[in-house]
Design brief:
The complex is a heterodimer. Chain A is an alpha+beta fold. Chain A is 54% helix and 18% strand. Chain A folds into 2 domains: 2-96, Phosphoribosylformylglycinamidine synthase subunit PurS (Mth169, Chain: A, 2-Layer Sandwich), CATH 3.30.1280.10; 98-134. Chain A is built from 4 helices and 3 strands; from the N terminus they run βαβαβαα. Chain B is built from 5 helices and 11 strands. Chain B has helices at residues 16-25, 68-78, 88-95, 152-160, 212-225, and strands at residues 4-9, 29-34, 45-48, 83-86, 102-104, 112-120, 136-143, 147-149, 164-168, 180-184, 190-193. Chain B has a 9-stranded mixed β-sheet, sandwiched between helices. In chain B, helix 1 (16-25) links the parallel strand 1 (4-9) and strand 2 (29-34). The radius of gyration of chain B is 16 Å and the shape is globular. The chains are: A alpha+beta, B alpha/beta. Chain A binds chain B through residues 10, 14-15, 17-18, 20-21, 65-66, 68, 70-71, and chain B through 58-59, 62, 66, 94-95, 100-102, 104-107, 109, 147, 149-151, 175.
């Protein structure tokens, strides 16, 4: 199983009343100094590999239906899952068009980064929980 | 022979019955169309009514825009058939790119339901020829996502080409750019607006009967065409 994520956000110049409402609610709850813009996240799951063709198809789907490009921007990315690690490598390699060694290096860095992001997020969450408990 | 005006019912449409009734009350022959229909051959004009088609899932009008009947409505509109989108119908027309721009959540962050004063800005459309430029009318306005937005180029083009058809008067209820309440396409046969003409044809139920002119306008257009 492979997963492609499409993130959709209102364009910066477009008013985001939902984000404003959330911002106001956070402030009332004591979460000061946070400005929120609210978007949407779509998770598209596929059997088999995420090929370049598949990604192009997802971009077309995003442009056609998932986002209204008059008011929104979208971002398409492959989300690595343990089972799809090999397929992701392949898709990203063909996209980059670089030599194999560089790709592998980039892939490793990417994996490390995402790992780091994950643990950071977790520790931030823990800190927040601790703070709230305190 | 009275003109046949189709009204599309999508799952979640609310004002289709009022639109059908308004057509009948104003002297036309109402025709019910279904979102799954594969043709609009039997009608002279089409109204996309208000409501919450497909539950407003994803974005207002985003799913309805791909309903089977819409492929035919788009084809007919591009060939010159009069099409009127009211409220959710306006959102569908924007999603379908028959009209430029988009409708976003009201800046006031609440659902607005009121009798809204409007200024008629253009009578050069199939649906507004019976008004006069500068005329003030009052129509029911009821929506949560009626803020009209478009990029600066589009706004300039709409203003320059006289395609802003209605403007909010005495206060902007939802944050619409340039106080825009309704716009039309280049040809003037496709009109979208947030307020509801179909609720304003009867002294018993509407604040005014200003909605009647939409119907007499299109009837006149269709009569002249024949």
């Amino acid at each position: 199983m492979a997963r492609v994520v499409v993130d959709v956000m209102p364009k910066p110049e477009i008013l985001d009343p939902q984000g404003k409402a959330v911002t106001g609610a956070l402030a009332r709850l004591g979460f000061a100094g946070m400005s929120v813009r609210q978007g949407k996240r779509f998770e598209l799951e596929f059997d088999g590999e995420v090929t370049e063709e598949r990604l192009a198809e997802v971009r077309r789907a995003a442009e056609t239906l998932l986002a209204n490009t008059v008011i929104e921007t979208f971002d398409v990315r492959v989300e690595p899952t343990p089972e799809s690690a090999g397929a992701v490598d392949e898709a990203q390699n063909s996209q980059a068009g670089n030599n194999q060694a560089e790709n592998n290096k980039a892939e490793n860095n990417k994996a490390e980064n995402s790992k780091a992001d994950g643990s950071e997020a977790k520790s931030a969450e823990e800190a927040e929980l601790a703070a709230r408990a305190g | 022979m009275s003109p046949k005006i189709g009204v599309v019912t999508f799952p979640g449409s609310l004002d289709d019955q009022d639109a059908l009734r308004a057509i009948r009350k104003c002297g036309g022959e109402p025709v019910s169309l279904w979102h799954g229909d594969d043709n609009v051959d039997g009608v002279d004009a089409v109204i996309l009514p208000g409501g919450f088609s497909y539950g407003d899932y994803l974005r207002c009008g985003a799913i309805s825009r791909f309903a089977p009947v819409m492929a035919e409505v788009i084809k007919a509109a591009e060939a010159g058939m009069p099409v009127l989108g009211i409220c959710n119908g306006f959102q569908i027309l924007c999603e379908a790119q028959l009209l430029p721009g988009a409708l976003i959540r009201n800046d006031v962050r609440v659902f607005v339901c009121k009798d809204q004063d409007l200024q008629v800005e253009s009578v050069d459309t199939t649906w507004t020829s019976e008004f006069t430029v500068g005329q003030t009318i009052t129509l029911v306005l009821k929506n949560g996502e009626g803020g009209y937005v478009a990029d600066e180029d589009t706004l300039q083009r709409l203003e320059g080409e006289g395609r802003v058809v209605f403007r909010y008067l005495n206060g902007n209820p939802n944050g619409s750019f340039h106080d825009i309440a309704g716009i039309c396409n280049e040809r003037g046969n496709v009109l979208g607006l947030m307020p509801h003409p179909e609720h304003n044809i009867d002294p018993l139920t509407g604040p005014t009967q200003d909605g009647r002119a939409f119907f007499s306008s299109v009837f006149n257009f269709l009569a002249a065409k024949v």
